[in-house]
Design goal:
heterodimer, A: 206 residues, mainly alpha, 9 helices, B: 187 residues, Arp2/3 complex 21 kDa subunit ARPC3, 69% helix, transmembrane helix (chain A), transmembrane (chain A), Transporter (chain A), membrane (chain A)
């Protein structure tokens, strides 16, 4: 699975991820607190400049942003027809700006830096006993590791269906896929505990 | 959370991601191709229960947020949380929780197959349709300024497909319960 991070040395690349996330939050709040077309238009132009400064290239940018742009365009058009031209423009500018800034943060922050930022943000929650901060990185790693595994199981099941002349139906594929995948949980959990990855000193709850 | 619960949630998150990578499935009797990913959210609730199911969905959203293209159609990154349909993604978390909480209370191992399937279907519809659309429609109406009633009517087009997904999820949950029960039972 390739991440959406793009190598580079722009200003945004050098900012710490936690700060970038706070800035993104501030931008989204500012965008939703105003309806001024002048402010929203300026913000959208700034968003385009910010995204263009990353040097991703038009083609690649289009591929990345197309699905979300399409949804925004459809909804903005619906707003324009159902409510008013002004409402449609406000929705279009707000959402497009937010999308550009968010995509810029994603393109300039490697996955590892994000996980570090999330782990640090979860430390106060750990003090409350809600979550173990180090579990977040472990779980993310497990998911990334097992997606290809699940896909190869799916392909094996499809081949097995075809070899028996059965139609590939969701109802007959999903059940064996889920049971096969979840059955490996015990072995993986045992392997994690045997290596002491989650720490041995603290008492495990239930 | 025990290591086993953590691993189960992570494995299920991997299943949800994989469901989004698969080509859309044609169900035969309706002409619209359906993506299996939103069914994964219902499945997480009915198979793993409220707590682990919610963690599985949170993991998928976290992976998307940190820049991995894990959502259907290869979408990912923080930009997916800036779309008009973001309410549905937020709703996923609550959908999995409500589906799981209801499934834990409605379905017993001692029940017959039909009662179990109906219990799972009710849980999947309540969480994966009612709760999910409540979040999705409210967010859409707030962000775009579309009148709530119009947003509600516009979203109705997707309900039949989601009811079919709930039915498939219910049947699958019944079969998984018979083959490899994981759902914690509640009085």
């Amino acid at each position: 699975m390739n991440s959406l991070y793009v190598e580079g040395d722009s200003f945004l690349h050098r900012l710490p991820p936690g700060l970038k996330l706070l800035l993104l939050l501030a931008v989204s709040l500012a965008l939703f607190l105003t309806r001024s077309p002048l402010f929203l238009g300026g913000a959208a132009a700034a968003g385009v400049l910010l995204y263009a400064s990353l040097g991703i290239g038009w083609r690649q940018s289009w591929i990345r942003l197309r699905p979300i742009l399409l949804t925004i365009a459809i909804v903005a058009l619906a707003t324009l027809l159902l409510e008013s031209v002004e409402d449609g423009m406000v929705a279009l500018l707000r959402l497009t700006t937010l999308m550009l800034v968010a995509a810029a943060v994603t393109a300039t922050t490697p996955v590892g830096a994000f996980i570090d930022a999330v782990t640090r943000a979860a430390l106060p929650l750990e003090k409350l006993g809600l979550v173990r901060a180090s579990d977040i990185g472990l779980a993310v790693g497990l998911v990334i590791r097992f997606v290809p595994e699940v896909i190869s199981r799916y392909q094996a099941l499809r081949t097995a269906h075809q070899a028996r002349g059965l139609k590939v139906r969701p109802t007959t594929m999903i059940v064996p896929l889920i049971i096969q995948t979840l059955k490996s949980a015990d072995e993986i959990a045992a392997a994690i505990d045997a290596r002491g990855i989650r720490g041995q000193k603290r008492q495990r709850k239930s | 959370m025990s290591t086993r619960d953590l691993v189960l949630a992570a494995l299920f998150a991997a299943i949800i991601v994989a469901l989004g990578l698969l080509p859309p499935i044609m169900l035969g009797f309706i002409p619209v191709p359906i993506t299996a990913q939103s069914m994964g959210v219902m499945l997480a609730g009915v198979i793993l229960g409220a707590r682990r199911g919610t963690v599985a969905v949170l993991l998928v959203l976290l992976l998307a947020a940190i820049g991995l293209p894990v959502l259907s159609g290869g979408r990912g990154g923080l930009a997916v949380f800036a779309a008009p349909t973001t309410g549905y993604l937020i709703g996923w978390v609550f959908a999995a929780f409500v589906t799981g909480a209801l499934a834990e209370r409605l379905v017993r191992p001692a029940q017959g197959a039909l009662a179990q399937s109906l219990g799972f279907f009710a849980a999947a519809v309540a969480g994966g349709v009612v709760v999910l659309y409540a979040f999705g429609i409210t967010y859409l109406a707030v962000v775009t300024g579309i009148d709530f009633g119009k947003a509600f009517l516009g979203s109705m087009a997707f309900i039949p497909g989601d009811l079919i997904k709930a039915a498939v999820a219910a049947l699958a949950a019944r079969a998984v319960m018979a083959g490899y029960p994981l759902l914690p039972a509640r009085a």
